[in-house]
Design brief:
2 copies of one chain form a homodimer. Chain A is mainly alpha-helical. Helix content of chain A is 57%, strand content 11%. The first copy, chain A, is built from 5 helices and 2 strands; from the N terminus they run H-H-H-H-E-E-H. The two termini of chain A are 26 Å apart.
DNA sequence: ATTATTGTTCGTATTTTTGCGAACAATAAA
DNA sequence: TTTATTGTTCGCAAAAATACGAACAATAAT
C-alpha cells in the first residue's frame, strides 16, 4: 500500500504560494466566480460587474494571468478571458495536497 | 438530485481571499509544511528551520494565526504552534468549492 | 538580585501592492 | 481622414507587506 505523500517539494511550495497570492484579493476571487457564472467573459463584462476603474480591473486580470489561473485571447476588438484549464487543475491538486497535509493523522498537537 | 453549488457567497469569497492571502508567501507555506512534519512545533523549532530573524518568523506566524489557520499556546517559557483544526477544514472546503466552480461543465470558453 | 531563556512588540527602512486617470494602441466605422 | 470602440500601459500617490535589530516581557535558574 502506498503511503500518502505528507509533504510538498520546494517547487510545489513556491507554486502554491504564487497561486495563493494571486487568489488573495477579494476582487480577484470575485472575477473568478463571475467567470464561472458566465458563458461570455469579455473584459467589458467583467468590468461592468466591478465598481472600479478599468485600468484596475485590467491589472487584476493581469495578475491572475501571470499566476497562470486564467488566459486571455483577443477577439478584436474585445478580449475574452477564460480559466486556464490545465493550470486550474494543477492549482486544484496543489491546494488539495496542501490541505491534505493535515488530514491523515489526528494532528500532531 | 441536488445540483452542485456553482457559486460562492460574498462572505465566503472574502474568507477564501483572506486565507489565500495568508497562504500567499513561500515562508508561510514552508511553515505549514514544517508543522505537518513535526510533532514538536515550538516557535524555536520553526525559527531554526528558516533563514531569517526571529521577529520576522514571529510576524509570519501572526499572520497565519490572524487568518485562523494556526493557533499558538504558551507552554512557558515556550510557545507551541499548531494547525487550527476546525478552520483548516473550513479552508479546505472553501478552496475545494472555489476550484469546483470550474469542474462540472466542459468550461464556458 | 542577576542572569539566562524564549518569544513578542516596536520603530524603521525598503519594497510591493493597489487604485486612479491620462495617454496610448489597434481595429472598425463614418 | 476622422471618430468610436475596446483594453492595455504609464505615471503617480497612498497604503500595505516584508524584514531587520533593539527593546521589552515573563518566567526560571543561579
Amino acid at each position: 500500500m502506498e503511503t500518502t505523500k505528507l509533504t510538498l517539494q520546494t517547487a510545489e511550495q513556491e507554486m502554491v504560494a504564487r497561486m495563493a497570492k494571486a487568489l488573495g484579493h477579494p476582487t480577484r476571487i470575485e472575477i473568478l466566480v463571475f467567470l464561472a457564472s458566465q458563458d461570455s467573459c469579455f473584459f467589458g463584462d467583467i468590468h461592468d460587474e466591478l465598481p472600479m476603474a478599468k485600468s484596475t480591473v485590467s491589472q487584476h486580470l493581469k495578475e491572475l494571468k501571470d499566476a497562470g489561473l486564467i488566459q486571455g485571447e483577443i477577439e478584436t476588438p474585445k478580449v475574452r478571458y477564460c480559466i486556464h484549464k490545465e493550470n486550474w487543475e494543477i492549482a486544484r491538486k496543489l491546494f488539495s495536497d496542501l490541505f491534505g497535509l493535515f488530514e491523515e493523522t489526528e494532528m500532531n498537537c
